[in-house]
């Protein structure tokens, strides 16, 4: 990765960290998932409102490193409006990117999320970047259980 691209990616991550999108909570009809990463102290509380198989609303709160909170901000932006199925596909693409594997970017525009691809070079930080995504997967799973 060129140093200019690397710099741009750092700026995108810092922007999401300093100006998080979708920070807060959803009070009506949402599922709340609390997750933490004990190795570095990241803590995320994710709120999802899922109706008719679609993620209508996604918000988060928490504290942690810039990668963890920027990833949560990016994830909530990316999954809002997606079907649960597409959100899960996006999570799979994200995990592949985090592991430095080839991923299917044809069907999804990763947008700002692509800025996190450099994290794959730092295995200790991958858990930081994936925390909010794991919370989202757990949250849509809980919503499915509630509908049964």
From TrEMBL:
It holds the Pfam family NifU_N. InterPro entries: NIF_FeS_clus_asmbl_NifU_N (IPR002871). Coiled coil: none annotated. Signal peptide: none annotated. Residues 9-128 form the NIF system FeS cluster assembly NifU N-terminal domain. Gene3D superfamilies: 3.90.1010.10. This is Fe-S cluster assembly sulfur transfer protein SufU.
């Amino acid at each position: 990765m060129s140093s200019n691209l690397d710099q741009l990616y750092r700026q995108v991550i810092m922007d999401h960290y300093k100006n998080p999108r979708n920070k807060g909570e959803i009070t009506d009809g949402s599922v709340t998932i609390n997750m933490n990463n004990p190795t570095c102290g990241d803590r995320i509380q994710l709120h999802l409102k899922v109706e008719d198989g679609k993620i209508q609303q996604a918000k988060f709160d928490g504290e942690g490193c810039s990668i963890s909170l920027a990833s949560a901000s990016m994830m909530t932006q990316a999954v809002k409006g997606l079907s649960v199925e597409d959100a899960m596909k996006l999570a799979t693409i994200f995990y592949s990117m985090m592991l430095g594997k080839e991923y299917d970017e044809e069907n999804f525009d990763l947008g700002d999320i692509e800025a996190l691809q450099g994290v794959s070079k730092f295995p200790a930080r991958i858990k930081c970047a994936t925390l909010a995504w794991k919370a989202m997967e757990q949250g849509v799973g809980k919503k499915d259980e509630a509908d049964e």
